[in-house]
Design a protein that fits this description.
Pfam families: hEGF (PF12661). The protein is mainly beta. The protein has one helix spanning 15-21, and strands spanning 9-10, 37-38, 53-56, 59-61, 66-67, 73-74, 85-88, 91-93, 98-99, 105-106, 117-121, 124-128, 133-134, 140-141, 152-155, 158-160, 165-166, 172-173, 184-187, 190-192, 197-198, 204-205. Among the domains are: 1-75, no CATH class; 142-205, Laminin. The termini are far apart.
Length: 209
Amino acid sequence: MGFVGLGSAVLLVSMTTLLGVCSAGSDAPRGVALGFVFDPKATCEPPCEHAGICIRNNTCFCSKGYEGETCQYANCYPKCKNGGVCLRPGKCRCPPGYGGRYCHKVTCDGGCWNGGECSAVNGVAKCICPSSWSGSKCQEAICPQGCRNGGLCVAPGICSCPEGWLGGACHTAVCSKPCLNGGKCISPDKCRCRPPFSGARCEERTKSH
């Protein structure tokens, strides 16, 4: 079955093309009805972009994934979220703090460690840390008891102590040789003596006059 045109012809669009252009959903580009009029002598200024076809003067028929008067805009379906920009069909450029194909996921730069979860807080991506961790990436362990005498918190509730100190909070001094006569180790290799004793290890008895 053919069509004879006087200056114009009727272009029948296959269902495949039509489905590609008239996708379901409000975000899809508008298509041209089946059996639209096509003028082979039509000119479009500015010209149709992204393989669009000039069907009538200054009227473009856009290929799948593009829309606009000259098919200049890429179309992302669903639309890019959270301020993302559609670069090409189905590809969004996301602002900092967001990721995923349509910028629908909150992302934290460098990720969140130790079970932290990335979440948007007042529009800013932040790591929400479990109770035993802190820091921008949940990288810092929390020792509720504190780490004294130069100790470092290396895991929740666990201190790494410098040489000469022991205990959960690095609070117990270590004397390589024990303090004698009831003396107490108060810092590495230093004893506090009970009267009448003195000396490095409280080994000397002070003579009374």
